[in-house]
Amino acid sequence: MATSTPFSSYFLQERSFCREPISYFRELALNFSTLSTRNPINLSFERRVFKRSGVRCCALEIKKTPAISTGKMFQLDDVIEAQQFDREILGNIFEVAREMEVIEKNSHGSQILKGYLMATLFYEPSTRTRLSFESAMKRLGGEVLTTENAREFSSAAKGETLEDTIRTVEGYSDIIVMRHFESGAARRAAATAGIPVINAGDGPGQHPTQALLDVYTIDREIGKLDGIKVALVGDLANGRTVRSLAYLLAKYQDVKIFFVSPDVVKMKDDIKHYLTSKGVEWEESDDLMEVASKCDVVYQTRIQRERFGERIDLYEEARGKYIVDCGVLNVMQKRAVVMHPLPRLDEITVDVDADHRAAYFRQAKNGLFIRMALLKLLLIGW
Amino acid sequence: MATSTPFSSYFLQERSFCREPISYFRELALNFSTLSTRNPINLSFERRVFKRSGVRCCALEIKKTPAISTGKMFQLDDVIEAQQFDREILGNIFEVAREMEVIEKNSHGSQILKGYLMATLFYEPSTRTRLSFESAMKRLGGEVLTTENAREFSSAAKGETLEDTIRTVEGYSDIIVMRHFESGAARRAAATAGIPVINAGDGPGQHPTQALLDVYTIDREIGKLDGIKVALVGDLANGRTVRSLAYLLAKYQDVKIFFVSPDVVKMKDDIKHYLTSKGVEWEESDDLMEVASKCDVVYQTRIQRERFGERIDLYEEARGKYIVDCGVLNVMQKRAVVMHPLPRLDEITVDVDADHRAAYFRQAKNGLFIRMALLKLLLIGW
Amino acid sequence: MATSTPFSSYFLQERSFCREPISYFRELALNFSTLSTRNPINLSFERRVFKRSGVRCCALEIKKTPAISTGKMFQLDDVIEAQQFDREILGNIFEVAREMEVIEKNSHGSQILKGYLMATLFYEPSTRTRLSFESAMKRLGGEVLTTENAREFSSAAKGETLEDTIRTVEGYSDIIVMRHFESGAARRAAATAGIPVINAGDGPGQHPTQALLDVYTIDREIGKLDGIKVALVGDLANGRTVRSLAYLLAKYQDVKIFFVSPDVVKMKDDIKHYLTSKGVEWEESDDLMEVASKCDVVYQTRIQRERFGERIDLYEEARGKYIVDCGVLNVMQKRAVVMHPLPRLDEITVDVDADHRAAYFRQAKNGLFIRMALLKLLLIGW
Known about the structure:
Chain A is of the alpha/beta class. Helix content of chain A is 41%, strand content 18%. The A-B interface holds A 5-7, 10, 14, 27-28, 31-32, 34-35, 39, 41, 64, 114-117, 119, 143, 145-147, 149-150, 152-155, 157-161, 163-165, 167-169, 171-174 and B 19, 21-24, 26-27, 53-56, 107-110, 125, 127-128, 130-132, 134-135, 138-139, 146, 148, 302, 305-306, 342-345, 350, 361, 364-365, 368. Chains A, B, C: Pathway: Pyrimidine metabolism; UMP biosynthesis via de novo pathway; (S)-dihydroorotate from bicarbonate: step 2/3.
């Protein structure tokens, strides 16, 4: 898709840049990429390296990649809940996430978000999610203000409202990533803030970036979203992860979903009804081996002990029931994958890790690309 | 005030930079601004954008703004207490703060403090103050080392002295911003450190950047400091904020101060005597409406429950007595403002927020500019 | 050692850069230093400043310093324990640390590690060590993801293994600096990670960067490591610091070590046997004055109360026994030094601080240079 442009030749011919040291080109390319991102033209470059005077030099080959839709702002002002995404938006986010994979792999030190400041406002700690967002921001050249004790910030003792806190923090930053213990907090924050808000989980409510990275991982691993067969395994009653995933999969065609879970933590009726209303085929099963042999994705989840209160016996029974081990792997198709939102205990045995179909660490990494994409889209658009 | 200089034309003519891409100019301008700050010449630039070969290009118009006093170091080595500031220093800080407003609004990614490292050494958490300082540093291209558990650093158990801690931390950074629970700690740190120290609050002692941002806000909102009328409302006995503000206002002419507070938290005599000795007119009143109708500034503060111990009844009585609501707004002058150091509870009702005279969130934002100004002044001077 | 190269002249002559503003050269020099580090050629530069058109300009004098071994990768993939270092590796690290001293002193804002991301994964807080590593990374232009509550990350409640945590974090960063409460944790992390791991202390196990900075400090202060006489004073039974130091000193020739400690915390036999097997002379003494008068280094350590449990009486007896005060200083040789890993209580009296032989704060600062060197070596090699 990339083609050379008149501009690049202008550059090479008129300035004789082929005699410059490689770092100079690197600098220029960074400048171009900054330029291209803020003003919607995508430029990439290729270095042809040769030796001169004992120093590695290179010529710059500038390529202009037409942007999806030049100058278009991202459709969303905030990322609050899975319900915001339609098929088109998902496609757009995933396209940018693919670009982010290239940036993360090839160039140390992208400067796309240079000068932007993200506030990580966490009312409860979630180190994994926080590090993922902060890495995303820094991989794009942005900076971070961080707090994991935001409860203290708007201290219950002092009694400041969330709205007042947001009005203060928006003065210090360009985007707010918020984790909260109350459902709906992210929506209230977004309603107040004049800058974008990303929900990094609000209590029992939503965790939309997890939902996005799950769908993105399926797309990347299987190569398609229409026509896929997905097994959701484990705690389907309490996991917002699997509920959001089922919700988003309903936006694609000919999807079939299998629910495999202990009786005490079965998928609730609201999602089942929703799937049916959208024409998505689903069935419940208690035969993990049989389901695994048919599916493109086996999405395993952790049975959470805290959901069982005093009934440790029920917990122990439930957690041991559906384990993904090498036996399950053996019946799975060659190109199928095992996914898991992490952290895992023993619901996937460690010997599975070595199999290329174990996609859960790649899935975690995809969270980085999704968050890079969202930060870029919300801060500077396409 | 800005005028074109020979230097800029040299640049444009001899290098034909009008044919370069916009990012190149951006880069140059950043370099210039770095140059100009460290070597006291202020340069700004203007982009004249035009299309060329399908890429937005621009010409650079470099402008040289004469600095206030070329090469002069800032008068202070540290910022420890309100008593350090005279009228001239306040004026200088405010002038730089104004420049900081421009930088923060116009240019993502100022590089003025690039390569400088600030250590945020907080012996007690104060997320709001910490984020404000860290934002200030990062908005100027500087970097931050942060700790909110500095108590542990010089752990009481291990028994390291504050002086030893400072001697270690100064080896890692270029400036220390310290919050401490003991009055006088900042002064001890400054006496030890070979690098600048900013007091971000030391227990019941001082919080000089809050005092500065309050005076700056009055200057920005009202347009003057001489001849203003200010009502200090709420807890005047315990709030170091209002005490410092009264102290600093005494440096200006024809200031009149009204104290409006419940009996149990009246302004103490030391400040009253000080004001009288400086020729500042003041009076106490229990009629908020009448005072509000005459003042340029109604500075409301929170009644702090923790000051009342067991006497919740006294607290409840005190806190309900002087509320700034739309009734008060209605009698206030058109160009008067309501200020508050935040966080607020219900001593200002939320319906006041929508009125343009509600200045408290702008006031919080001014804290950013004041801190940017102090960081610049202490690290690189004018 | 630095010599001008054809390349530098090419640059100066063909581009007439002597007419550019100083900032432009600064930028170029930064580019070169990036270039030279990633592609193993070391370039430095010298600015000859002159006035032109009222603006300070300069000419660039580029110097090529031959790298120790061009293009050679650092011998180590991770830094886990003192046993990894032989005399050659120590020499190499110290040589780079010396370069780091120059970088830290002369140039604000080295960009050698620009675009690299370090994850500070601390399972227990150690603010001093954390700030030192984070300062090191930022002084070289790198970025940091930080967590001091990593226990929560791989929460015991949730039960994630260290290996799974590492696999996630390595997806977000380029190097992991880990502090852990369990001996051997760093080795496990390194075995899992595809990126370098530095052990910042693992429980009662190792703290290799402390050992390195101790040896480096002796080399810097005394000017040699062969033939030195070192007194290890204080708690020799529990301090991993002194144990590692003794271990590393055995790699040098004609070293003599004196152990001066209360009976309850004497150096253990394993180290004594090791020293003997390596031909290192050692003796125990209870006469601090006599030992101090003969040694190049008096390495004092803190008697840790927590080692004595209920026996406060034994602790009080032990801690008061060997104090380094001005009396000790008076018998010490002119070029000898006092060292201490910090924090100190009263085992070195504060009046010693003013003497130039008090090396402990310089020692803490050397920790910065050693960590800068290790980060550079592990991330980009020579």
